[in-house]
């Protein structure tokens, strides 16, 4: 699923799949900050798997990277 498609749908499953895509590099190279953002958004929509994946990724990120991911998630929510 593309980012544009998920932005139109926004279901927990769609957002979770984006998190997976970014965490393993299906979109190019892995981007854990971006993956954390999508897992956070999916978790807010009730995805238990996203909560677990977000926690796992957070353990690999610095506090600054987590802050960037959270800020990006808030910005996404504000525009969707």
TrEMBL record:
InterPro entries: TPR-like_helical_dom_sf (IPR011990). It comes from the Bacteria. This is Sel1 repeat family protein.
